[in-house]
What we know:
The chain is an alpha+beta fold. 37% of the residues lie in helices and 20% in strands.
Amino acid sequence: MSFLQANSPSPLPPAMHPDRIFEPSPDFRDKFNRLPFMYSHYLADHPLMQLPRLVELANTLIQYGPGSIRCQASKMPKHLKWTDATLKEDLQEKLPEFIANIEHSESWLLLYSVQRDPEYRALVDQIIDELEQLTGQPLRQEMSWIDAYIFIASPRAVTSYHIDHESTFLMQMHGDRTSNLFDGNDRSILTDEELENFYIGDLTAATYSDAKQAKAYVYPMTAGKGVHHPVCAPHWYQNGEQYSIALGIHFDFKSDDRRARVHQANYYLRKLGLKPTPPGQSAFKDSLKIKFIGLFSDRHPQTKGDVLYSGIRRLRGIAAKIAQTRKIFAKKA
Ligand SMILES: [Fe+2]
């Protein structure tokens, strides 16, 4: 169950509930979870998106553990891998200072699950309501997971090139930055092997190149603008001369979870020297692969990680035991 399904009507003041959040556009319906697009929104001046309130939010979130906030140095070239950034030390103590002085602290912060605070939860709930209307999709019914993040970054920060399993609506609240988005369905940009490695657990599998950059959708984002990333659409960001605040709404959809299992099965088939059929080309083969990975997956997954990776974790465990048994027999023989 998502956090939104358990939500109840909120007694928040009217300023927290704008009449409308998005400027309507046919792109929501025509391109949703297929192609990147830019849109306009009306949340840039919202009280929940101001720095003092975000310091308060960070202090609330840190009580859920250090994993509730990611904090790293803001200056890293776009071609570096996501995991190459150095994590800041003494996160908990310095966090309010990093945020309050974001203009100069050369920091890049990601506040996870901001809906743990009831005021943010009510706003996110309203955003989903409106997205369901604009896309014409029953998002709550089709999703397996949802989360809302807030990104806060110093001037000139770079978010390096990567892909996510989530389908995202990112909304710029302060500052300007350039969004570079790519068509994840174009195999000259994102190869089957990159997708298979990503779904086997290498979160940095997608690799940037100048040749790919020529095919980017480049959107100049300012406060009041937003972009949509479909599932596995590669992206990287370059911040401008001001600090940046952005809200991201992230969905996993059941259909994308199933496709992930096809990529996982294909990873192993490729390891066996075969040339596996990519997802979407044979419903029969896709179904067999989904069922196969499903045999090893948790019946009642508790987390997004369990949904995506419990099957391959179990398969790896079985493979390790077989290899160990072979070694023992080989020694005795
Ligand atoms: Fe991302």
